[in-house]
């Protein structure tokens, strides 16, 4: 009886093992793909990776770097804002430079006032004083002449009436008065002539130098406010109020590198895609006049026809997409730019990676 029970249990175990093995060997039915992969629409087409960017007549996006260093005090726009050329974007702390500008402005104004003073000479009040001094010197000379004449006349009548010493003193006083009048006359002529031409020229040079220093400081002060270099859209702002920035850009805590402070682009109505053609496939490209392209949006089945714009005639290492500055394999690519009109139902943004097929016929 015991052997029979063991045989039955063994049989049940064998059946369970066979059932388990059968179930485990069943392959699950594969799920349908979320989207069909991009298919080459051309009989002879070249695949390329592309990146969407704003439509620019020349170059890529507008990368704005500050020309001065300091903490940001005010951000005047937001990402996605439409701006016009010259609109202020943000401000950097300019307190020190502003004080320097005010100081140099005061110095330039003081130099201008001094120049005007020199050109306005002689001052009327100074000229009146000089005229009075001339009259006074003439009167003193007349008095000395009269005294000398009286003593000489008395001496001629009676030599004992005037001492020799007194007569000599009168003669000396007359000479001193005459010389003093001559000096006063020359001083009057100097006052009447006004400022010396060389003093005026020297003051003019100082005023020009201080004015240029003030203009230079004011121009530097203006650089503490970043302005839009052209009409467009603010794509990204890499720093906020309080962040320290420099001409190298702003520190990105995610990439741990220095990025442009602000990135601007053109309107979204017209975008372009920069396709990177591997250098070994460049020879297969069609004539630029006949070049066509098709862009496929990754993760969807949407595709958009492209219009050829230009070839950037410079083959460079393929670091634009990966941002890797040190690659083990030096893959070099040729950028080919296409333009496309963004459909309303198509949500694409500059910086987005796409698949591109370029006609090789």
Explain what the structure shows.
This protein is α+β, with helices and mostly antiparallel strands. It folds into four domains: 45-55 and 267-359, Beta Barrel (Elongation Factor Tu (Ef-tu), domain 3), CATH 2.40.30; 63-93 and 224-265, Beta Barrel (OB fold (Dihydrolipoamide Acetyltransferase, E2P)); 99-118 and 200-221; 122-194. Helix content is 39%, strand content 25%. It has five helices and 17 strands. The chain has helices at residues 2-24, 95-120, 124-157, 164-193, 197-222, and strands spanning 45-54, 62-64, 70-75, 82-83, 88-92, 225-227, 232-237, 244-245, 250-252, 257-259, 262-265, 270-278, 292-296, 303-311, 316-317, 332-341, 353-359. A six-stranded antiparallel beta barrel has the order 1-12-16-14-13-17. Strand 13 and strand 14 (303-311) form a beta hairpin. Helix 2 (95-120) packs antiparallel against helix 5 and helix 3 packs antiparallel against helix 4. The protein is rod-shaped, with a radius of gyration of 47 Å. The model has no long low-confidence stretch (mean pLDDT 85).
Compact overview of the structure:
The protein has helices at 2-24, 95-120, 124-157, 164-193, 197-222; strands spanning 45-54, 62-64, 70-75, 82-83, 88-92, 225-227, 232-237, 244-245, 250-252, 257-259, 262-265, 270-278, 292-296, 303-311, 316-317, 332-341, 353-359. With 361 residues, it is an alpha+beta fold.
Short key terms for the protein model shown above:
rod-shaped, Elongation Factor Tu (Ef-tu), domain 3, 361 residues, alpha+beta, 39% helix, four-stranded antiparallel beta sheet
């Amino acid at each position: 009886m015991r052997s029979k029970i063991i045989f039955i249990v063994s049989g049940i175990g064998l059946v369970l093992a066979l059932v388990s093995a059968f179930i485990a060997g069943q392959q699950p039915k594969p799920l349908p793909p979320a989207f069909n992969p991009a298919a080459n629409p051309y009989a002879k087409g070249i695949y390329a990776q592309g990146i969407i960017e704003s439509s620019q007549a020349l170059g890529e996006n507008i990368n704005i770097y500050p020309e001065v260093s300091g903490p940001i005090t005010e951000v005047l726009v937001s990402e996605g804002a439409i701006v016009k050329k010259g609109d202020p974007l943000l401000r950097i702390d300019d307190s020190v430079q502003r004080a320097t500008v005010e100081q140099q402005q005061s110095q330039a104004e003081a130099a201008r006032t001094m120049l005007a003073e020199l050109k306005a000479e002689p001052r009327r009040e100074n000229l009146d004083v000089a005229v009075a001094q001339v009259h006074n010197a003439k009167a003193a000379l007349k008095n000395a002449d009269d005294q000398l004449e009286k003593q000489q006349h008395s001496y001629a009548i009676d030599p004992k009436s005037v001492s020799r010493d007194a007569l000599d003193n009168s003669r000396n006083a007359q000479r001193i008065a005459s010389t003093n009048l001559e000096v006063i006359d020359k001083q009057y002529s100097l006052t009447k002539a006004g400022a010396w031409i060389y003093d005026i020229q020297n003051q003019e040079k100082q005023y020009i130098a201080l004015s240029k220093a003030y203009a230079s400081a004011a121009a530097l002060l203006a650089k503490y406010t970043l302005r839009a270099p052209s009409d467009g859209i603010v794509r990204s702002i890499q720093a906020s109020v309080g962040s320290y920035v420099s001409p190298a850009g702003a520190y990105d805590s995610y990439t741990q590198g220095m990025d442009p402070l602000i990135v601007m682009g053109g309107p979204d109505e017209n975008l372009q895609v920069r396709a990177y053609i591997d250098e070994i496939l460049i020879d297969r490209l069609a004539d630029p006049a006949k070049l066509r392209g098709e862009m496929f949006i990754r993760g969807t089945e949407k595709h958009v026809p492209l219009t050829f714009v230009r070839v950037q005639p410079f083959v460079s290492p393929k670091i634009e997409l990966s941002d890797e500055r040190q690659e083990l394999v030096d893959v070099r690519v040729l950028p080919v730019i296409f333009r496309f009109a963004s459909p309303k139902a198509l949500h694409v943004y500059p910086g987005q990676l796409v698949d591109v097929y370029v006609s090789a016929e």
